[in-house]
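Students often ask why we bother predicting the structure of a whole assembly rather than each chain alone. The short answer is interfaces. A chain on its own may look different once its partners are present, and contacts between molecules only exist in the joint model. In this exercise we take two input lines together and write out one structure for the complete complex. Read the inputs first and try to guess which parts will touch.
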Amino acid sequence: NAGVTQTPKFQVLKTGQSMTLQCAQDMNHEYMSWYRQDPGMGLRLIHYSVGAGITDQGEVPNGYNVSRSTTEDFPLRLLSAAPSQTSVYFCASSTRTLGQGASDGYTFGSGTRLTVV
Amino acid sequence: KNEVEQSPQNLTAQEGEFITINCSYSVGISALHWLQQHPGGGIVSLFMLSSGKKKHGRLIATINIQEKHSSLHITASHPRDSAVYICAVSPWKAAGNKLTFGGGTRVLVKP
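Now the answer. The structure tokens for the assembled complex follow.
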């Protein structure tokens, strides 16, 4: 099925470990982004990309790296996990123009629930 | 003041009732999005609006660009509609179509 695929769905890390959250989309969307969702804080933007080879920081980028080598993939790397990074992470993709076409708009992945102990 | 404000924060309805959730925003936008999130679940995009009104099944979304206001209506509500509904906007010319989110409305529909 077309959409945004995130893996893994659940992960437990020890403080200081590193890991990569995978995100792939098959809709040929130009824009991709990573958000984290925390109780009382809502959804906040970590990093985003407007195309292959182009990434930029969002609201809460510290402790995370991203790269966009292909249109389809946008992995999020945690360099040295900290308990403050315990959260639910969502990857999303969108068309460049938010018109009213049937294929325009945002698509979210199913989320990765990360716990850092 | 947040750029996107939703009301109410919580809503409880009896099955079959008509539900309205409101969203006000303070910036120029290229689109407004209504999202749905079931407990412990992923985020589903319900509607993307830049003008007028859209309908999908029992859900209706409207937007008034001049007043910077949108509403999401659920007709004949059902317990499976119990979820958090999130309003988000794509500010005009925001790089990467970045979204600014409201705080969400938690809806509980009792049978």
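Check your guess against this: The interface with chain A takes residues 30-31, 33, 35, 41-45, 48, 50, 86, 88, 90, 95-99, 101-104 of chain B (CB under 8 Å).
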